[in-house]
Amino acid sequence: MNHFTKLPAVLLLEDGTVFHGKAAGKIGTTTGEICFNTGMTGYQEIFTDPSYFGQIMVATNAHIGNYGIANEEVESEQIQIAGLVCKNYNIAYSRKQADESIQDYFQQHNLVGISDVDTRQLVRHIRDKGAMNAIISSEILDVEELKAKLAQVPSMDGLELSSQVSTKETYTFGKEDASYRVAVLDLGVKKNILRNFDDRDVYAKVYPAKTTFEEMEKDFAPSGYFISNGPGDPSAMPYAIDTVKKVLASEKPMFGICLGHQLLALANDIPTKKMFNGHRGLNHPVKNVIINHCEVTSQNHGFGVVQEAVRSSDKVEVTHVNLNDQSIEGIRVKGKKAFSVQYHPESSPGPHDSRYLFDDFINSMK
């Protein structure tokens, strides 16, 4: 396998910046929006998180692949990122529990990557210039040819992607005789969210993105609704905004995470916007302003809710605020059992400071 790492590869950004490195994974070409994740561990959870669909991921940790790939540590059935950029690509791994190397895994899933890149320089560039489209190739090394290909890639702004990653068939998770029944609108749900529900005596039924409220209600008569995380621009999803509005009108408890948070805001006439750089990593401090308590959170989003609109709204109130940039990280609807957070309380591999939100949702269904 090691001879693959010797082949050259090129990373070209939309603003014309070029990085040269070595091929990682499958030999080929891939495009997407480039962004970075600051997590020190959990690369496999990042690769398989549906919220990263259509994105080229820059790993800020220096070593990727060093603890191999373990089959049970996935957040979905396949790799979701469009490509990987890293510094050290470690094919040899050092963990007994691992099932295979990162190179075998990437080849199996047709993932194109580039290693031996100065990721510190690259991240500083993206941090200053903002998220933008990029192309990685280990088959075309001519920069002009890559520029022509990159010019055809659509912007993430206005892109609806959830219906592409959502389940095609409904399925259930957990024990049928559990105390609570939760309908999950799958916009790119992570497996660990479902595990957290199962741990709390919930029988969940997962529905494709475009399922209507009426269909879920008639089919499952759930005790509450969960609106999942997912990729793309929330404002390009009128079908999901409509579903959220109907859940709110039904007065049933509702919990939203990430994209689900943005949709709850949109359903209450609060606009969303594309962020200059999103929040992606395992170390973002968030303050719960209701109980005056700080939690360290796992985050993954490129869109956010418009702060001024939330603060001036008479329909919702702020529950959580990001301590790095003061962005709104959580809201609840006044007079209803509906709330949401922008971050990931199910955070796998961690931190676990925010798991209480699942308990809050369960308590609202009692």
UniProtKB/TrEMBL annotation:
* Pfam families in alphabetical order: CPSase_sm_chain, GATase
What keywords sit in the KW lines?
Amino-acid biosynthesis, Arginine biosynthesis, ATP-binding, Glutamine amidotransferase, Ligase, Nucleotide-binding, Pyrimidine biosynthesis
InterPro entries reported in the protein's UniProt record: Anth_synth/Amidotransfase, CarbamoylP_synth_ssu, CarbamoylP_synth_ssu_N, CarbP_synth_ssu_N_sf, Class_I_gatase-like, CPSase_GATase1, GATASE
Coiled coil ranges (UniProt) are none
Q: Which domain of life is it from?
A: Bacteria
Residues binding L-glutamine, per UniProt:
S51, G230, G232, L259, Q262, N300, G302, F303
The record ties this protein, via CDD domains, to: GATase1_CPSase (cd01744)
Carbamoyl-phosphate synthase small subunit N-terminal domain residues: 7-137
Q: Which reaction does it catalyse?
A: hydrogencarbonate + L-glutamine + 2 ATP + H2O = carbamoyl phosphate + L-glutamate + 2 ADP + phosphate + 2 H(+); L-glutamine + H2O = L-glutamate + NH4(+)
**Does the entry feature the keyword Nucleotide-binding, yes or no?**
yes
Write one Gene Ontology MF term.
Answer: carbamoyl-phosphate synthase (glutamine-hydrolyzing) activity
Which biological pathway?
Amino-acid biosynthesis; L-arginine biosynthesis; carbamoyl phosphate from bicarbonate: step 1/1; Pyrimidine metabolism; UMP biosynthesis via de novo pathway; (S)-dihydroorotate from bicarbonate: step 1/3
Give the top-level enzyme category: ligase
Q: Which GO terms describe its biological process?
A: 'de novo' pyrimidine nucleobase biosynthetic process; 'de novo' UMP biosynthetic process; glutamine metabolic process; L-arginine biosynthetic process
Q: What is its EC number?
A: 6.3.5.5
Segments of this protein annotated with the region CPSase: 1-180
So where's the catalytic machinery, residue-wise?
Answer: C258 (nucleophile), H344, E346
Summary of subunit composition and partner proteins: Composed of two chains; the small (or glutamine) chain promotes the hydrolysis of glutamine to ammonia, which is used by the large (or ammonia) chain to synthesize carbamoyl phosphate. Tetramer of heterodimers (alpha,beta)4.
Give the UniProt family note: Belongs to the CarA family.
Q: Explain the purpose of this protein.
A: Small subunit of the glutamine-dependent carbamoyl phosphate synthetase (CPSase). CPSase catalyzes the formation of carbamoyl phosphate from the ammonia moiety of glutamine, carbonate, and phosphate donated by ATP, constituting the first step of 2 biosynthetic pathways, one leading to arginine and/or urea and the other to pyrimidine nucleotides. The small subunit (glutamine amidotransferase) binds and cleaves glutamine to supply the large subunit with the substrate ammonia.
What is this protein identified as? Carbamoyl phosphate synthase small chain
Biological source species: Mucilaginibacter achroorhodeus
